Amino acid sequence: MTIRVGKWLAIGAIAVAAPGARAAHDRPDAAVVWEDVVASYERVHDYTALYDKDERAISNGEPQRIRLSFRKPLDVRMEWLNESGAVDQVAVYRQGQNDGKVIAHRSGMLGSVVGTVRLDPHDKRALEDSRHPITEVGLGHIIEQMSRALRDGHVSAHAPVEDSVEGRPAVRFEIDGPEDARLFGVEGARRATVWVDAAQKLPIKVEIVNGAGTMLERHRFKDLRLDVGLKDATFTL
């Protein structure tokens, strides 16, 4: 079943119902609705996760595994892991610090550059391993993008469905965009699907596909640990 946007939408932490929508207490069958996701993230101060991502625009979707540390409002540490699980490269970003630059070490994301460098987040060298800048990494950006798409009313939203991700109970949220859609800022994206952990009420998986159903991006957050008390040293190189 597909519903037009307006039912079970979140603006901030407030649910917005379209004319004719059910009363706020009359929730759909799924255990989580989008307003729960927004509210859950608002309570988070920091988190860590094992972040797996595939982007078709980068090396035709070659998988990347990253140890991610995030502290609000926007402190990020990303550690790329090689096939043996060792850290191959590191990038850190602190909002309002380091003249707005990403501090990065070693090669890979930086092409042939080896050592520690300072780059604008949108510099092409800083985007060699991702089409998204480091400022768009993490759960908050996913929640913001989905909330904005729902709020703007240019997409069709499916009713949330109970599902699972690798055996873990989850709720699946799905939106479809028009032919000229750029869902989640991805060129050609026509459908975005977000799986939310049923217990934590936070995104743990995102898939974005084009009109032909071809996978454009996949983002997976594993071993998500909340409010671990990350310090400044985590975001220093």
Polypeptide structure, described:
This protein has two helices and 15 strands. Strand 4 and strand 5 form a beta hairpin. Helix 1 packs across helix 2 (139-152). The termini are far apart. The chain has helices spanning 34-42, 139-152; strands spanning 2-4, 9-11, 14-16, 46-55, 64-71, 75-81, 87-94, 102-105, 116-119, 156-158, 161-165, 168-176, 191-197, 203-209, 215-226. The chain is globular, with a radius of gyration of 18 Å. Strands 1, 4, 5, 6, 7, 8, 9, 10, 11, 12, 13, 14 and 15 form a 13-stranded antiparallel beta sheet that branches. A two-stranded antiparallel sheet has the order 2-3. The protein has two domains: 2-44 and 138-224, no CATH class; 46-135 and 226-235, no CATH class.
Write the layout of secondary structure elements.
Blueprint: E1 2-4, E2 9-11, E3 14-16, H1 34-42, E4 46-55, E5 64-71, E6 75-81, E7 87-94, E8 102-105, E9 116-119, H2 139-152, E10 156-158, E11 161-165, E12 168-176, E13 191-197, E14 203-209, E15 215-226
Antiparallel strand pairs: 1-10, 2-3, 4-5, 4-15, 5-6, 6-7, 7-8, 8-9, 10-12, 11-12, 12-13, 13-14, 14-15
Helix pairs in contact: 1-2
Task: Using brief descriptors, characterize the structure shown.
single chain, 237 residues, mainly beta, 13-stranded antiparallel beta sheet, globular, disordered N terminus
Summarize the structure.
With 237 residues, the chain is mostly beta strands. Helices cover 10% and strands 39% of the residues. Strand 11 (161-165) and strand 12 form a beta hairpin.
On the 0-100 scale, what is the average pLDDT? 84
Uncertain runs: 1-28, 108-112
Distance between the termini: 49 Å
Query: Helix/strand/pairing class, anyone?
Result: mainly beta
Strand content: 35-45%
**Over the alpha carbons, how many angstroms does the gyration radius reach?**
18 Å
Oligomeric form: single chain
The total count of strands amounts to 15
Shape: globular
Residues in helix, %: under 10%
Count of structural domains: 2
Major sheet summary line: 13 strands, antiparallel
Number of helices: 2
Question: Order of helices and strands, N to C?
Answer: EEEHEEEEEEHEEEEEE
